[in-house]
């Protein structure tokens, strides 16, 4: 046989495990790299993940995209180095260790026996904890990437390149020291990047208060501000107004106070001034509810405080005095009326209006005096102007605490209340506790002090209102504790000087999808601020800055050699982590004594952003290699990396090389839980990835992820059912097509002794239209994939690949099954096999990057029909793995648009014909005498005639008539759309009504084709006319349906001959279905026995005559050809053969019912059978002989059997036969 037998059922995960074993045996990945040495390099940058946790669906998705693109690059003639990388520094590692060692603050680190050194070495020991799991999971997903030659951000070579980059930026004047208000985790005691802060927003309820700030010049007049962070009020240094807003001075008639606020924000103090829209949750509404609740609680408290007897007495009096219900109603109405009148009373009056800029410079009385003496001389406690004040919340007056708000810091800096390199008010320590200067709340966690601060303000009569507000607030992504914003001393990279070039370089690369590049990322770049690259941590690449105590002098080091030279140290520097270099000092050249290294380490985003050059130790090594391959050809990560890795790479690349770091970039969306929420380990709202892989296979998971919105940055709500459906709808049909091809090739060898050997030259010789069509489609697919993959549009490629599998299985294979079963001769079968083989090989090559396992499995069997010495036109040989093969180029000479159009028309007619059958309750199994295809275009009909034989087969008809005279079958009539034309023509409508109704069939047909018609110089379109289609043929004989310009008409009359043919097919169908249930393959030899009950007269579909059909000699050859054996009445079955029964359908009503008749079937393995009558009279001996001969092979048509010393001689064709049918019918 040409191929290994392919089983009917497949376990995809098990087959994938076999492929993994095969790849390991041949060292497939490394072999592919060796084979591609010397080709044009394709540079891929892999973003380094943390190894402190296991990969999730986001990693698997990004990894799949990377694997597909790099595999495709390899299979299109490139050398693709694929190194895995690890982000080994930063908060995730320290956080894990802090939990282990119960470390709460930096002091705890210093208290360790080995100090920072012990801490860092413990970090080093856990950083690669899950690396083997990563390698196993990524390998199981089929991704080829080099783990042995990986890079780590903790490597000394990597860290040295990071130093070089920072020194280069400093030499360009882009580095400075300052303060930055940053998201800060009090649990982890570190600042976070905005990217990290954006990863974990939760809905919380916080206090929302309105407070007053009396003017120094007029204490009776007060500014009104609003805040949701009362703990920041002790640090207030200014109030900010928008210079362009309208502000008002009002007199509160209830409080008898004069207040200043923005006119557009009156609703904050007086909710009734603006009625909330329906369905809109307003904080003011919450405030009103809270006030009502507060009043109710006060009344209940007052009631509780009354003596028990007094309360009982009051209750009794109330019951005695309670009027009747009829009397109570008027009083209630009066109370409601009084309340409404109270509500109508004005609560304030406006005294004055002015612009915000008129308030600038006015001084106010601070809420607290903790920092009055220190900051009053600096110009604090006055009104300043800023355009960040908005109209959507608050009072239009913002309280500014520069140590706890980015806008606050910047506006106070701009107004000289604080200095860039000077002191900054931040009385909160690294654990989030007030320091000793805030005497009332010292050593207490800030957010726990909110309520007491509010009570203190109330006591000072500065509290105007209090309520609660529900809003989304950032939490630490590691500890799940609320973040605060806190001023941190930092080292910065200036973005301003390079911003213009950042925007230019952004547009030099190709993004998929493009809108992320042009909108989201562009906007982020436009608003980008200076980048704080330092972190007060221990485990990271140390900042290479040696500075004097007052920072008046500092040196940035760019290499180990420079450090040794400037410090004069003789020790060998083998590691650059803090504990190995912090002791090294440099002598000041300016008289500042000793310069010591600053304590900070790099933000890990600076390290990962340095990956393109740091991974190969540039510029200390591989200088030529880097400069030759930079920028990289391809990167891919998730949407969240637009503000992370994509951004940091672009900033550093632009600042260092004035180039974008990548040429092509794919942004994937987020994989969410099935309900649309974020996937959470804690909630367990998603299936374990490896359980899914072990259940359905990695190929199925890969295809499911790639054929979804996430490939173009949309969200995917993950469902396990979706992965299952990939196997069901894509891989199983493809596998079955491959299996049928293998079976057909093997049967050709078994039945005709013709071994299939692939010869690509034969494919161009096939005259069959469907062969030409599927090869044309395959080559068009190659052309399409090449274009789309060059544009990195994976989301357009996958649907086309899936669509091609559908065309192959549901059209080509179904239409050509008979040819592959040698129904039209060996030569025609070989044409079909060559075509099928060529298409399967093309598919395995195209699909190899997307589904590496199933393609390898198929290829290993398919390559058996290619001689080892075979060489393709491009010089390729019969490679050991599909992943060593190149994706072929499209053969333009095979692409045939005419054939493709013809088959498309064929498919359209087939679908219409099936609909007509369905409408008339005529199963496709029932043969019909005639079908007529009506189309006025003769060219269309001629093209369709090429498919005539296929049309007959697919629609199960004896004759096809092609008719270009529509009027023979249908008649179009038209009537006006009165609503549209009546409005358009008015009084002239009657005129057009008449003319439209008079249109003949041909005019209406042209109208339909053109989409418009001119009547009395007026152009009328299809939507203005109602076209009716009337079927004019004999409806008792014909039924028809129109699809576009085509009408399909079938003859619905059933003759006895047609019915008998139908029964023949039904009988065959039942046999084939039972074969399938029995797990038999075509080469399995069986004998079929039948029994029929409830047989009828054969006059209708419900009254068959099966016995008559089986015995009709006209159908004998049909049964022989399709069943490969004769049908034998069950009563002729030798009783002893029941022991060799394979399968029966006795208990399956669906399988043995044909109309009112019952067809019982029984299968027995085909083997030698003994005719007892012609052997002898000893029945016991005969039975033993019959069992003994099964499995034996005659010699010269003779068999000798010895039973209990008795020898029996048998002669083939006389008393022993090859099968029952030979014995019965011959």
TrEMBL record:
CDD domains with a match to the protein in the record: Anticodon_Ia_Ile_ABEc, IleRS_core
Ranges where the record places region Disordered: 273-344
Domain of life: Eukaryota
Basic residues composition bias: residue spans: 284-307
Comp. bias (Low complexity): 308-329
Any one Pfam family match given in the protein's UniProt record, by short name: DUF5915
Record EC number: 6.1.1.5
GO molecular function: ligase activity
This protein's UniProt keywords: Aminoacyl-tRNA synthetase, ATP-binding, Ligase, Nucleotide-binding, Protein biosynthesis
Domain Aminoacyl-tRNA synthetase class Ia: 19-713
Biased segments, Basic and acidic residues type: 273-283, 332-344
Transmembrane segments annotated in the record for this chain: none
Statement: the UniProt record of this protein carries the keyword Protein biosynthesis: yes
InterPro entries recorded: aa-tRNA-synth_I_CS, aa-tRNA-synth_Ia, Anticodon_Ile_ABEc, Ile-tRNA-ligase, Ile-tRNA-ligase_type2, M/V/L/I-tRNA-synth_anticd-bd, Rossmann-like_a/b/a_fold, tRNAsynth_Ia_anticodon-bd
Reactions accelerated catalytically: tRNA(Ile) + L-isoleucine + ATP = L-isoleucyl-tRNA(Ile) + AMP + diphosphate
Domain Methionyl/Valyl/Leucyl/Isoleucyl-tRNA synthetase anticodon-binding, residue spans: 771-930
Family annotation (HAMAP family): Ile_tRNA_synth_type2 (MF_02003)
Entry similarity comment: Belongs to the class-I aminoacyl-tRNA synthetase family.
Protein name: isoleucine--tRNA ligase
Annotated organism of origin: Anaeramoeba flamelloides
Upper classification of the organism: Eukaryota, Metamonada, Anaeramoebidae, Anaeramoeba
């Amino acid at each position: 046989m040409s191929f290994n037998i392919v089983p009917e059922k497949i376990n995809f995960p098990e087959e994938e495990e076999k492929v993994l074993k095969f790849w390991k045996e041949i060292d497939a990945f490394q072999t592919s790299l060796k084979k591609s040495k010397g080709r044009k390099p394709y540079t891929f940058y892999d973003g380094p993940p943390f190894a402190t946790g296991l990969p999730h669906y986001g990693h698997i998705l990004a990894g799949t995209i990377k694997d597909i693109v790099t595999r495709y690059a390899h299979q299109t003639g490139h050398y693709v180095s694929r190194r895995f990388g690890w982000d080994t520094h930063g908060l995730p590692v320290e956080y894990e260790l802090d939990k282990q060692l119960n470390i709460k603050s930096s002091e705890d680190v210093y208290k360790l026996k080995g100090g920072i050194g012990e801490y860092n070495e413990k970090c080093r020991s856990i950083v690669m904890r899950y690396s083997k799991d990563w390698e196993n999971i990524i390998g199981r997903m089929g991704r080829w990437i080099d783990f042995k030659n990986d890079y780590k951000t903790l490597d000394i070579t990597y860290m040295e390149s990071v130093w070089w980059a920072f020194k280069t930026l400093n030499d360009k004047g882009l580095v400075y020291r300052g303060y930055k208000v940053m998201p800060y985790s009090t649990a982890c005691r570190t600042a976070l990047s905005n990217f990290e802060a954006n990863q974990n927003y939760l809905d919380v309820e916080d206090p929302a208060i309105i407070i007053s700030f009396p003017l120094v010049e007029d204490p009776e007049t007060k500014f009104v501000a609003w805040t949701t962070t009362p703990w920041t009020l002790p640090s207030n240094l200014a109030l900010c107004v928008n210079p362009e807003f309208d502000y008002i001075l009002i007199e509160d008639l209830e409080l008898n106070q004069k207040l200043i606020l923005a006119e557009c924000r009156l609703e904050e103090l007086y909710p009734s001034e603006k009625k909330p829209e329906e369905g809109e949750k307003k904080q003011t509404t919450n405030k009103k509810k809270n006030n009502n609740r507060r009043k109710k609680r006060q009344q209940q408290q007052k009631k509780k405080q009354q003596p028990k007897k007094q309360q009982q007495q009051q209750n009794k009096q109330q019951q005695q005095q309670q009027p009747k219900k009829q009397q109570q109603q008027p009083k209630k109405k009066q109370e409601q009326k009084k309340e409404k009148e109270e509500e109508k009373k004005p609560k304030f009056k406006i005294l004055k209006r002015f612009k915000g800029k008129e308030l600038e410079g006015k001084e106010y009385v601070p809420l607290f005096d903790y920092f009055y003496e220190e900051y009053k001389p600096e110009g604090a406690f006055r009104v300043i102007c800023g355009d960040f004040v908005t109209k959507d919340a608050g009072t239009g007056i913002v309280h500014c605490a520069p140590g706890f708000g980015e806008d606050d810091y910047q506006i106070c800096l701009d107004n000289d209340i604080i200095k860039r390199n000077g002191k900054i008010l931040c009385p909160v320590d690294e654990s989030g506790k007030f320091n000793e200067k805030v005497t009332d709340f010292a050593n207490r966690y800030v957010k726990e002090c909110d309520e007491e601060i509010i009570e203190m303000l109330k006591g000072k009569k500065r509290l105007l209102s209090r309520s609660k507000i529900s809003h989304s607030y950032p939490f630490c992504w590691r500890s799940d504790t609320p973040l605060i914003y806190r001023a941190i001393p930092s080292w910065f990279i200036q973005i301003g000087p390079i911003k213009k070039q950042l925007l230019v370089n952004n547009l030099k690369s190709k993004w998929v999808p493009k809108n992320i590049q042009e909108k989201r990322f562009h906007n982020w770049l436009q608003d980008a601020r200076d980048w704080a690259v330092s972190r007060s941590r221990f485990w990271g690449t140390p900042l290479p800055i040696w500075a004097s105590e007052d920072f008046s002098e500092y040196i940035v080091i760019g290499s180990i050699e420079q450090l040794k030279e400037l410090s004069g140290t003789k020790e060998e520097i083998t590691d650059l982590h803090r504990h190995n270099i912090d002791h090294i000092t440099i002598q000041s050249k300016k008289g500042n004594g000793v310069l010591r290294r600053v304590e900070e380490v790099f933000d890990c985003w600076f390290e990962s952003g340095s990956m393109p050059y740091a991974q190969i130790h540039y510029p200390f090594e591989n200088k030529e290699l880097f400069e030759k391959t930079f920028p990289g050809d391809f990167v891919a990560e998730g949407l969240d990396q637009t503000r992370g890795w994509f951004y940091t790479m672009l900033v550093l690349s632009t600042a260092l090389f004035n180039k974008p770091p990548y040429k092509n970039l794919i942004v994937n969306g987020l994989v969410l839980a099935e309900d649309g929420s974020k996937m959470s380990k804690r909630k367990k709202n998603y299936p374990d990835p490896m359980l899914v892989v072990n259940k359905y296979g990695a190929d199925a998971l890969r295809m499911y992820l790639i054929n979804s919105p996430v490939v173009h940055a949309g969200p995917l709500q993950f469902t396990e059912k979706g992965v299952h459906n990939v196997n069901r709808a894509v891989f199983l049909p493809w596998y079955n097509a491959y299996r049928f091809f293998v079976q057909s090739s093997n049967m050709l060898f078994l039945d005709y002794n013709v071994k299939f050997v692939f010869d690509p030259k034969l494919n161009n010789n096939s005259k069959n239209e469907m062969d030409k069509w599927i090869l044309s489609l395959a080559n068009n697919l190659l052309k399409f994939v090449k274009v789309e993959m060059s544009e990195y549009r994976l989301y357009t490629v996958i649907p086309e690949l899936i669509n091609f599998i559908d065309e192959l299985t549901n059209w080509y294979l179904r239409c050509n099954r008979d040819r592959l079963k040698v129904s039209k001769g060996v030569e025609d079968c070989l044409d079909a096999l060559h075509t099928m083989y060529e298409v399967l090989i093309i598919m395995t090559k195209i699909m190899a990057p997307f589904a590496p396992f199933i393609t390898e499995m198929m290829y290993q069997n398919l390559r058996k029909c290619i001689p080892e010495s075979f060489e393709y036109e491009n010089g390729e040989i019969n490679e050991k793995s599909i992943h060593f093969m190149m994706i072929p180029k499209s053969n333009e000479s095979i692409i045939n648009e005419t054939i493709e159009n013809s088959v498309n028309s064929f498919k359209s007619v087939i679908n219409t014909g099936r609909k007509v059958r369905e409408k008339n309750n005529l199963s496709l199994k029932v043969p019909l005498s005639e079908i007529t295809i009506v189309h006025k275009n003769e060219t269309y009909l001629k093209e369709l005639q090429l498919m005539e034989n296929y049309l007959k087969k697919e629609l199960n008809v004896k004759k096809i008539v092609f008719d270009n005279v529509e009027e023979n079958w249908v008649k179009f009539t038209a009537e006006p759309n009165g609503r549209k034309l009546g409005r358009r023509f008015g009084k002239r409508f009657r005129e057009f009504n008449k003319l439209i109704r008079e249109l003949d069939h041909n005019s209406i047909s042209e109208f339909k084709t053109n989409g418009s018609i001119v009547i009395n110089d007026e152009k009328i379109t299809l939507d203005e006319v109602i076209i009716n289609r009337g079927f004019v043929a004999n409806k008792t004989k014909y039924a028809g349906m129109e699809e576009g310009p085509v009408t399909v008409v079938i003859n619905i009359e059933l003759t006895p001959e047609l019915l008998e043919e139908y029964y023949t097919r039904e009988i065959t169908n039942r046999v084939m279905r039972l074969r399938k249930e029995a797990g038999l393959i075509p080469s399995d030899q069986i004998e079929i026995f039948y029994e029929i009950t409830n047989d009828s007269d054969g006059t209708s579909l419900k009254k068959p005559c099966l016995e008559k059909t089986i015995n009709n000699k006209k159908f004998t050859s049909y049964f022989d050809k399709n069943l490969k054996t004769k049908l034998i009445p069950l009563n002729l079955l030798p009783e002893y053969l029941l022991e060799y029964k394979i399968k029966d359908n006795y208990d399956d009503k669906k399988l043995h019912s044909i109309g009112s008749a019952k067809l019982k079937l029984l299968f027995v393995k085909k083997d030698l059978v003994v005719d007892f009558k012609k052997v002898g009279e000893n029945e016991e001996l005969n039975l033993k002989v019959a069992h003994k001969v099964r499995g034996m092979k005659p010699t010269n048509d003779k068999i000798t059997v010895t039973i209990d010393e008795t020898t029996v001689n048998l002669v083939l064709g006389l008393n022993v036969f090859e099968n029952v049918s030979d014995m019965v019918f011959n």
